[in-house]
Amino acid sequence: MAHLERCVGGIVFDDQGRLLLIRRANDPGKGQWSLPGGRVEPGETDHEAVVRELREETGLDVRPHTLAGSVVRGAYDIHDYECTWTGGILTAGDDASDAQWVNSAELVNLDEAGHLVDQLLITLRDWNQVPTA
């Protein structure tokens, strides 16, 4: 079996129940909306990687806690964690060309328009991680 690259993502909701998404600046999924996250660096824990990646991509400080679920997408073994937003100002950076909070209707619209990374909405629904707004 080919080696899978371990990656993490953060599932973050604001105080209005909206979900944090980023538009990917690079492949895979360039131009599509996804959860913020990225590769786990050597010597890093998943939680350390989530904190670093979300700060780099969104400008936000988060505290990761429960593992929401894991998926394999191509060569990537992705572990997505529920996170609490603790500070920072939302600003797209690093591998993100845009970052924003989306409500449930906006998330569905992005999916129907083909602007979400493959299977994201289905996966979030399976994990009970859709916006309440």
From TrEMBL:
Domain of life, per lineage: Bacteria
UniProt lineage: Bacteria, Bacillati, Actinomycetota, Actinomycetes, Pseudonocardiales
Entry cofactors: Mg(2+)
Pfam families for this protein: NUDIX
Protein name (Swiss-Prot/TrEMBL): NUDIX hydrolase
InterPro entries hit by this protein: Nudix_hydrolase (IPR020476), NUDIX_hydrolase-like_dom_sf (IPR015797), NUDIX_hydrolase_CS (IPR020084), NUDIX_hydrolase_dom (IPR000086)
Naturally occurring in which organism (per UniProt): Amycolatopsis albidoflavus
Entry keywords, A to Z: Hydrolase
GO molecular function terms noted in the UniProt entry: hydrolase activity
Keyword DNA-binding attached: no
